[in-house]
Amino acid sequence: MYDIETVRAQFPILSREVNGKPLVYLDNGASAQKPQVVIDAITQSYSHEYANVHRGLHYLSNLATDKYEAVRGKVATFLNAASEDEIVFNSGTTEGINAVAYGWAMPRMEAGDEIILSVMEHHANIVPWHFLRERQGVVIKWVDVDSTGALDPQAVIDAITPKTKLIAITHLSNVLGTKVDVKTITTAAHAKGVAVLVDGSQAAVHMPVDVQDIGCDFYAVTGHKLYGPSGSGAIYIKADRLREMRPFIGGGDMIKEVTKDSVIYNDPPMILEAGTPGIVQTIGLGVALDFMMGLGMDNIAAYENKLRDYAVSKLSGLNWIQVQGTTPDKGAIFSFTMDGAAHAHDISTILDKKGVAVRAGQHCTGPLMEYMGLPATCRASMGLYNTEAEVDVLIDALELAHDLFA
């Protein structure tokens, strides 16, 4: 039984007011709020248990190391990885994708080799590949979505040529809410010898993820969207790909021995984790994953799908609102524009006066905005603690904005 009031009670920020109105937080696509258990874990770590991890022989170092390393297994369980040794800690998806770009793709790709992207990728899954385009002559191939925002997996598969080395694709669009059939893409790509990286930043928070079932080579997640701390994250790297990775950041932890003339590197996954890590952030991420898995990812998905359907029914009654992304099985993410001269920033400001927090802008998806012919959109992105009553507040605030610009 998914008791929304019990869930909401665990997030202290949801009880506050903004501009004299109860907070309606609909900016989860940018970053999610934190449950009390995560806040408590962070406080406990800094107040009573903090020390650097690995190699320390004293009590606090061993305690911190045990708690930190335990998170590797939690991430593996959350993603259903075959082994916790396939989980590399980092600061978030951006660092994870860059690790693949520098550590796997750069040593293997030369001028003329191809990377396939969809037009709806986040900049974090675009810019690292532009680095390879600029520096090594790698070719980026783009696959468009249709008028509903759907991405045909066959269109991605058809874009593969003998020069294709990697497909880097989102699992769930942060603007359109579109779910991508990454399993079908991966199966076909592997049959042609092409690796697949999946950006799971948005998907992993909204639905169960099984990387073994998907079959992908890389799957990146970011902690601050998973109700955990900012500066935390992880990337799943399939064992055989992990052995192919070249370290791209050097320092402590990723080495076994250093002399004046040589370096002996550590074993995976440590070889990709240089320097003092985000110890407390990672511990907090583990607690956030425990929280989500305790609720049940199937339960979260079912609840959010119900919330999505309610929001669709309400927004469809506003004939002066255009929602971008209308696939039936989309995530509970709604990017929209309003008829008339109202700019997304103006709409967002008016909503904020009613206590409604949404995002306005390009959402780090410049190619998608260009493809849709839009300078910006407003985005209401929902999470496991949002309610139908909050959707009603959003609708009322939008009607006010429309009246002001009419």
Written description of the protein model:
InterPro entries: Aminotrans_V_dom (IPR000192), Aminotrans_V_PyrdxlP_BS (IPR020578), Cys_dSase_SufS (IPR010970), Cysteine_dSase (IPR016454), PyrdxlP-dep_Trfase (IPR015424), PyrdxlP-dep_Trfase_major (IPR015421), PyrdxlP-dep_Trfase_small (IPR015422). Pfam families: Aminotran_5 (PF00266). It is an enzyme of class 2 (transferase). The protein is an alpha/beta fold and 406 residues long. It has two domains: 4-30 and 297-405, Aspartate Aminotransferase, domain 1 (Alpha-Beta Complex), CATH 3.90.1150; 40-294, Aspartate Aminotransferase, domain 2 (3-Layer(aba) Sandwich), CATH 3.40.640.10. The protein has 15 helices and 17 strands. The chain has helices at residues 4-8, 36-49, 59-79, 93-108, 127-136, 153-158, 182-191, 203-206, 211-214, 239-242, 279-295, 297-315, 344-353, 366-372, 388-405, and strands at 17-18, 21-22, 24-25, 87-90, 114-118, 139-143, 164-170, 195-199, 218-222, 233-237, 255-258, 263-265, 321-324, 333-338, 356-357, 359-361, 377-381. The strands form five sheets. It has a seven-stranded mixed beta sheet, with helices on both faces. The chain has a four-stranded antiparallel beta sheet with strand order 13-14-17-16, with helices on one face. A hairpin with a 4-residue loop joins strand 11 (255-258) and strand 12. Helix 3 (59-79) crosses helix 11 (279-295) and helix 12 runs parallel beside helix 15. The model has no long low-confidence stretch (mean pLDDT 97).
